[in-house]
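Structure in, sequence out. Go:
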């Protein structure tokens, strides 16, 4: 079965009962696939293929990128490389963190997911690289433009969820600097999945490299004196998707009523491994499909609590003989 056919079949799946880490579901043609196989990348073992380059000889980052999950490291957590996964909060940072724990997840409410949270996600993304601008397209239908034409940062940029981003080259490394963010104090944005706060004065520096066709690496430095006492360094790697894989359509608004009426505030339980997890079993990836709709019921939402049903769960049926 082709990759395109497998992805289409996966898009037809309904969310299944919980499994220990990854979900398995039976596709209509009898082929078993796991959400993790479609979301996460696998180490590339084929022959090395040279990095694609533009007319100036610079690496092109265009492609469909899937995360290379690091065993023992949490996803969705900007502190994944720090001792105990703990971030260095300032007193004000702890105050805003506590406030975030009392708010509904902005992503669940279909508010634009900000940066660097999107870069900590387990979900694949696409990059379209042109000489003047670079575009990131993320699974939740959010996108970010990065200017590559040499312009300077605005002295007083409008706050944005993904920041105001300009890029420049240092050898074969694309350096993206972003400033002018929305602030968690307004209750509409989190730094990562674990409800950590971000301030309007944050500065994000990303260093992207593509050593060959199949791999993409990031070293990110996050500086935010309002909420953190020192810069935070974060590293990740992705592998290029197989031929025929691409970003899938997604609608965020399919179950907003359920979210507002049933989702509990804050990020939920964060385990000792630093993972927030997806669903009550702390699985590492969300159920598929994402954003599917059946009537007015979402069938793939994952940010639910153990004592709450998913929106895809049918109402309880009366016992036989009691109707």
């Amino acid at each position: 079965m082709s990759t395109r056919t497998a992805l289409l079949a996966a898009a037809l799946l309904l969310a299944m009962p919980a499994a220990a880490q990854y979900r398995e579901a039976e596709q209509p043609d009898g082929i078993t696939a796991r959400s993790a196989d479609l979301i996460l990348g696998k180490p590339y073992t084929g022959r090395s293929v040279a990095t694609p380059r533009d007319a100036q000889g610079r690496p092109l980052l265009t492609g469909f990128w899937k995360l290379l999950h690091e065993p023992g490291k949490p996803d969705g957590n900007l502190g994944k490389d720090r001792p105990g996964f703990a971030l260095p909060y300032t007193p004000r940072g702890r105050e805003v963190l506590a406030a975030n724990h009392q708010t509904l997840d902005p992503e669940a409410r279909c508010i634009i997911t900000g940066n660097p949270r999107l870069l900590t996600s387990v979900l694949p993304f696409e990059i379209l690289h042109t000489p003047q601008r670079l575009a990131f397209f993320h699974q939740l239908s959010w996108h970010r433009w990065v200017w590559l034409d040499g312009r300077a940062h605005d002295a007083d940029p409008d706050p944005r969820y993904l920041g105001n981003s300009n890029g420049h080259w240092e050898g074969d490394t694309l350096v993206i600097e972003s400033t002018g963010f929305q602030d968690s104090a307004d209750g509409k944005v989190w730094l990562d999945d674990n409800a950590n706060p971000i301030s309007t004065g944050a500065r994000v520096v990303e260093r992207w490299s593509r050593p060959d066709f199949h791999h993409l690496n990031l070293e990110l430095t996050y500086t935010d004196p309002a909420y953190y006492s020192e810069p935070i360094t974060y590293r990740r790697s992705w592998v290029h998707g197989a031929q025929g894989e691409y970003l899938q359509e997604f609608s965020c608004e399919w179950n907003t009523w359920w979210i507002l009426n049933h989702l509990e505030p804050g990020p939920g339980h964060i385990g000792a491994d630093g993972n927030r997890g997806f669903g009550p079993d702390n699985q590492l990836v969300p159920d598929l499909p994402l954003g599917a709709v059946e009537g007015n019921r979402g069938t793939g939402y994952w940010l639910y609590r153990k004592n709450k049903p998913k929106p895809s769960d049918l109402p309880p049926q009366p016992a036989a003989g009691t109707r």
